[in-house]
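Suppose you are handed a protein chain with no further information: no name, no annotation, nothing but its sequence. What can you learn? This example shows the usual starting point.
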Amino acid sequence: MEWYRKKINEIIENLSTSLSGLSSETAQLRLREHGPNELKETKKRPLIFMFLEQFKDFMILVLIAAAVISGILGDVTDTIVIIIIVILNAVIGFVQKYRAEKAMEALKKMASPTALVLRDGTPSRISASELVQGDVVILEAGNAVPADVRLVEAAQLKIDEAALTGESVPVEKFTDELDEEHLSIGDRKNMAYKDTFVSYGRGAGIVVATGMDTELGRIAAMLQEGEQVQTPLQKRLAKFGQKLGIVVLVLCVVFFGIGITRGEPLLLMLLTAISLAVAAIPEALPAVITISLAIGAKKLVKQNALIRNLPAVETLGSITYICSDKTGTLTLNKMTVEEICAGYNRVRTSDLIAEGQDNPVHYLLAALALNNDAQMDAEGKIIGDPTEIALYNIAKDKGFERNKMEQQYPRLAEIPFDSERKTMTTFHGWTEGFVSFTKGALEPLLEKSDTVLTSDGIKPIDAREYEKINEEMAANGLRVLCIAMKRWDVLPDNMLPSNIEKGLTVLGLVGMMDPPREEAREAVSLCKAAGIKPVMITGDHPATARAVAKRIGIMEDDTGVITGRELEKITWPDFLAQVEKIRVYARVAPEQKLKIVKALQEKGQYIAMTGDGVNDAPALKRSDIGIAMGITGTDVSKEAAHMILLDDNFATVVKAVREGRRIFDNIRKFIKYTMTSNSGEILTIFLAPFFGLPIPLLPIHILWINLVTDGLPGLALAAEPAEKDVMKRPPRHPQESIFAHGLGTHIIWVGLLMGLISVFVQAWSIGRGYNWQTMVFTVLCLNQMGHVLAIRSERESLFRQGLLSNKPLLGAFALTFVLQMATIYVPFLNPVFKTVPLAPGELIFTLMLSSGVFIAVEVEKFIKRKFIMP
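A reasonable first move is to predict its three-dimensional structure. Written in structure tokens, the prediction is:
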């Protein structure tokens, strides 16, 4: 029900209450009927079921099968490694889901413990959970609002609603009904909502909603109903695992059938086919992914981005849209005076100079210092209303420090601000007589003013000119205050506003805003260069949002702005048609943030959503990666998010995107490396019979190559630095295969080359009576090591990158080479691996052909640089 549209007497009648509150008996009856004022949780699943769900993935099932096969073959090491990887993945997935469910618990803990309520006409402090519809609650500065209430009394009442609306400035409240339909929460000035905070003044209101019926409860319901979205990596690997499993099964059956047809021993063919299956499945892939993500997460913490679940690191590299909150993320979350109009002259504060006591700038800055309630605490911190602090700071910066000014011009009397007059007046002793300074909204002050102080003295005021200046400043996103003064010979006895606030002289206008962060514009520019579209979603006024968006480059013209009210009226099909063109959303409600994320996802986009308030939690949870603010963020937003910005800075998101792209590149390099190696092994065994050659490798050879080449060298690829163009490419298409951009072609042609080289070595060695099986075994192993060095970059030569730019990989290469030589030249290993020591000539020939793949891939990159991607 739109309670803000109803008159107070209608609400009293609808809820069968009075301004004296409910009787205790009525309250108890309603509490039993409607339940406590608490957020309800959905029924929890047993933790064991949540853990077992982690084993449903097809890739995990394939790995378990590989572990069983390895155990049957007697390779206990492989079995243990695979089982550890599977369990590690299951634990990580379990922890992620468990943490996501904690968001609801954090939300429940936010409930206010007590409330001051009128029961039987008497103020009583009760547990907030006992509030019911119709209760009358009393609100005071510093209190949390215990339920959703329709205000019936507001004395200079201001409420901080940032957790619900994202608006940085406390909202001034009143009691009159509002006529408009579908107002956003930020515009419902006669309402106060559960778990917002009273920052100033006092008030009272009738409880109109409790528990899950409150705005906070609606957000809780959305959190419970929200779906957990798979990361891009999870989606790609699920498809990859399914296809790989089918291909491996088919190849093994075909190979087994061909071998039996040729008359090969049944047991040998069975063991070789099973060995091929184990070799073809990249069991190190989950470990490489986990280690890559863990390294990335560790790096990001140093850059002020805390990752709550590892897949979020890679997801950052996939995003196509960043939907960012404005306040505190793109801006400093600190009101600042940007521009001043003294007399009729507008000037940026950086160029402001106060010369001479009769200058309007001098009077204006004096008024900002003296007509001000901000205070400096013992630690030197300025405390008070954000607007007052902004005025205090600009005056202080220009030499008008309030405490010193008050010693010279003490405050003698004041007329406090109220919402009807929209003005505040203070009286001070002056050099001659007394002076009153009045500040407030332009419209009421123009009505009370006759003159304006200019550099040429006091002149009759041109109201139209001031209205024009005010419109221009407001269009630039500035919140405008008017400042006026009046000289007095004696202090007036009658301090009524109607007697004091008339015949004023306008000193000028002050324009304030929460300014953009200096680094935000560069970060937005980087996003655009990387093909990522930044979008601002805020609870602030459209003009403010538009001004900030223009200054940091999110918007280049006045198009692409939509308000929450407009979003409410638009149909879903129409919204889907234009959602990718909208760059700024202003005055949006919580469910609308969720609507925006869902619409973009339906259009096939990957979304990063930043936020700090309770209102952001459902959208953070639903988005592909939710990013909460570490400084200003609520516990609920942090629990719902995948990542937390420790410095609340949009530029940190862009750094994280870069890291995410680097990680995906490295995972892709590992897939390129391991799948090419696996295809080389399979093709070596498949091609030999077609050339009339015996099976070139034994099962132990296949398992050894699989162990030493997929292990350390593959893991070392996780440490590969980012390529130079990582933030100059467009995002990966959300639907693209992991084998896109030539990866599949590379696997095929390099695997074929690897197989042909191995078969050539086999045929050439047999013809000369050499130790052909040991030579094939070594060539196949070392060609894979040459390949891993060559694929460190898609374009750059290894020699340009430098061998030492990835020391872990160089170390892995050296260790693998030493281990392979040990299988040949350490006597007690010869019978284990069925090898014989190679003569010097055999070894030299083997090493020469082992560089064949490295040379071929370097030539491929040279052609790309010169002719395809110059």
